[in-house]
Amino acid sequence: MIQVTNAIALDDDLVEERFVRASGPGGQNVNKVATAVELRFNIRASSLPHDVKERLIALAGSKVIQDEVLLIDSREHRTQTQNREAARVMHLEENMVCVMIHSDPTLYATPWQVGLVAMDFPEVPVVMAHMGFVDVICNDAAINMARRAPNLYLETTGVSAEAKVALAVREIGAHRVLYGSDMPFHDPAFDMARIEYADIPEEGKKLIMGENARRLLDSLGK
After folding, report:
1. Is the dihedral of CA 43, 12, 150, 49 positive or negative?
2. Which of the four CATH numbers 2.170.120.12, 3.10.20.880, 3.20.20.140, 3.40.50.720 does domain 99-219 have?
3. How far is CA 9 from the centre of its chain?
4. 96 membership: H or E segment, kind and range
5. 77-117 pLDDT, tens per residue?
6. What is the CA radius of gyration of the chain?
7. Which residues partner with 20 through β-bridges?
């Protein structure tokens, strides 16, 4: 299995690899040894959810042949092994998703656990909902884990003190902090006020209140 996220894995049987002669980098091996890799993945036959299949086909565009097979070609490197790994990385990128994970002080949803998930999947953007919730120790833990995992974003619904939101901005940058409403469980006015009254520059507030979410989704082609 090729693990994409905790919830999505791709069956190796549906991924076909073929080695062909390369015309790119490769020194004396060029056009003599089959070092380039063609990777084919049958999207329609996979176990991916239907909406994910349709989105992947739309995003891949001309890389999809016969309306169902994703074709990825890698010939940048000198060896089969390097090109094989490069092709698989591109395959993961084609299936890129953003994952939001709930966090709070309870045993099964701590910021430390969410942070470790983000570190296990560095190519996948992970949003930590509530950045630890009402517990200030968990808020600090969320910020510390985000410092260690550049792909980890902090969402601010339910944080008890706007000072912790401001601290997150200072520590990891406003571009990785997100406003959220958690509707219908929260009154969005309180969560908006938390950002408004935090000691954050106005430009940072604009990022948090919507621009960051737009950029994140745009980066995934959503």
Report:
1. positive
2. 3.20.20.140
3. 15
4. none
5. 455 555 455 555 455 555 567 889 999 999 888 999 999 98
6. 21
7. 36
